[in-house]
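Practice problem: predict the structure.
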Amino acid sequence: MRDLTEVPLDQRQYGLLTMIGTQQASDPDGQWPMWDWVEHKAKLLGLENPREVLGSLPRVGAAESFGLSYGFTAPVPRILERDTRIALTVAAAWALNEVRYDLGDPFLRVLHHMIALWRSAPRSPNQVTQVILTSEDLQLAFPQMRARIIRLVPDYFSKEPFLHSSWGKQQDGSWTMDIPQEVMWFEHAHDLQGYVHEACSRVNEVIRADRAAFLTGQSEPAPPLDPVVHIGASRTALLTWLWRQKHERSSGVPLSDVLGVLADEDLCEDQGVRFTEEEIDRASEYLETAGLLEGGGDVDQKAGPALARITAAGEDCVENYKADVSAYIRKRGSGPVTFHINTNNGNIAANSSGFTQNATTQAAVDPAQLLAAVTLIQQLAPSLTPDSQEQQALRAQVDELQAAAAAPMPDRGVLRRIGEGVLSTIRGLAHSPDVQRLAIEAVEQGIQNL
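Answer:
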């Protein structure tokens, strides 16, 4: 995505933005509506999944929850609380005539007033230039502008990527606001389209500069990413972070947004590469399947739980295995075996000697390792083969294995038959030997005691 002015909105996106904008325009205090109201109202109007529509709105810049970006709304958190306010930006005012009168046109007039003030401000060789705008000065400059709009000016500017600055508001609604130097970037933006185009260009420029600075700072080319190590590291990072959350946060906040690990500079990357939201989501799914974390519901859930807490087994893994999830699962899988006597002819002698007893023994089926292997194979499928048909065939086998392992009374013969079939398929996928080896080991460990 390069420029919001080049992206058409579909009917659902247009309807959602219009509903939010018209509600704010009708609110006496100009407050943006809360998500609780937006979701309810949108469903009443026939929008089946408002959250999906909100997430589909185009953005320039960072595609995830972290980093510089610009869209038709102010950045929206991944976990939407009921009282989260959904605010529109000037980009929405360009796209929607319904929002232009209250947001777009006043914003543009105030912006060019700020540019004029910055250009004419006195300069000193011994001081950094600081230009202040007050609500009283703005009212004098635009006597026809409604008092309600003037009260909202700091809020409007705070939603723009380069124009938010420090400001203070009094109880009577008057305010004082610093004018950022960046207003001069927009001195040639004489209409809303020009402003939005320039804002998008600046976002892209900052991202390119950051990427170039990162690459320039590397003394040697970075070695290729080891996907096997990277996947394991994402699980270790998430489990360690959840352990810290439990022991460092108040007991009244038991659940944590798993994407919070991406904001932890000690845990957010591996091999010099930051984890993505999708990688953390997959790690969450794996750790839940392995019993190392438990989710708190399906709020915005993708593959794994979005809200989670560490389990007692997860704490054991962190404290005694340094959060090495693979080592912990291997150790757990080699524990004591429970035997069940299926056939017994005669009495069982206890604390006796000099007797002969014939019994058929069989280890209990524990599907945990197989289910963990299933989750891993589902994640590794794109790395095992780039061929979509081969991926589809592999996933079909893995889904069959998952269904058999999750049955109330798993049949070890069925599990072994399906597991051997999965192994045979994986051995024929030699696109990435390291990933293939990891996948084979996971399935073999899952079926070795069947």
